[in-house]
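Chapter review. Work through the record for PadR family transcriptional regulator before attempting the end-of-chapter questions.
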Amino acid sequence: MLELAVLGLLHEAPMHGYQLRKQLHARLGTFRAFSWGSLYPTLRRLQRAGLIAETTDTADDTADEGAETAASSRSRSSRSASRSSWGAKTRRGRRVFELTAEGKDRFDELLAEVGPQAWDDESFGIHLAFFSRTPVDVRMRILEGRRRQVEERREGLRSTLSRAGEQIDHYTRELHRIGLESTEREVRWLNELIAAERGESSPRSPDDGPGTTAGPSPHGA
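Structure tokens for PadR family transcriptional regulator:
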């Protein structure tokens, strides 16, 4: 999934390594935490595969240079000095990465993928972040797949609570209950997104109860 995230960000604009790291955290930090240790090996692999190319930006950027140097210094304990400086500013200028034609094709290929790998907990948020570039039919299949997965999880939690009865203590019951509430909220949110994709008004979930409606769709439906 880091490959999809990197290609997606470089599809928007060329970036140097520190900019990429900042954008990954700004755009996807809610879903995943990315480290220098995982980012730079991914960049090297994408470069070897011809999906991204490296150019040199001679513009001076002291603030970014200082931040990147500090971050690189913190990572030296787990990598060799040559690896920790890869992608940093050199005397010739900062190394900037940009998408190649093959990289654009690969990005489109990754966006078109549907299946459990596209809606599981690890990757759904990353796919969602690039939905504006994803074909409508693919978006729908991913949203519906995610909804099925979360609905199954919700029913499993309901069943667990029902069967457990008094056999579990108060705190374990609360743990299951908060998990159930979280899945119910996500199902309602997914219903809104799916309705917006279909151009429908926000539906009322059977679990909302009488007299309540789902909140407004993020898409304004």
